[in-house]
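Severity: low
Component: inverse-folding endpoint
Summary: output formatting inconsistent between runs
Steps to reproduce: submit the following structure tokens with default settings.
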């Protein structure tokens, strides 16, 4: 938890989780833009069927 000059900042857990989900989504989209990652995921999906 952040602490500035002995004043505590109370954060909302919902907001924190939302931000983490946003960054996870951005990272996933960025990874899917790479051709090798897309091919790997397609291969995994085909093998599990």
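Observed output (run 2 of 3):
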């Amino acid at each position: 938890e952040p602490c500035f000059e002995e004043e505590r900042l109370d954060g909302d857990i919902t907001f924190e989780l939302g931000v983490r989900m946003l960054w996870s989504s951005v990272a996933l989209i960025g990874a899917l833009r790479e051709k090798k990652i897309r091919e790997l995921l397609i291969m995994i999906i085909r093998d599990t069927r």
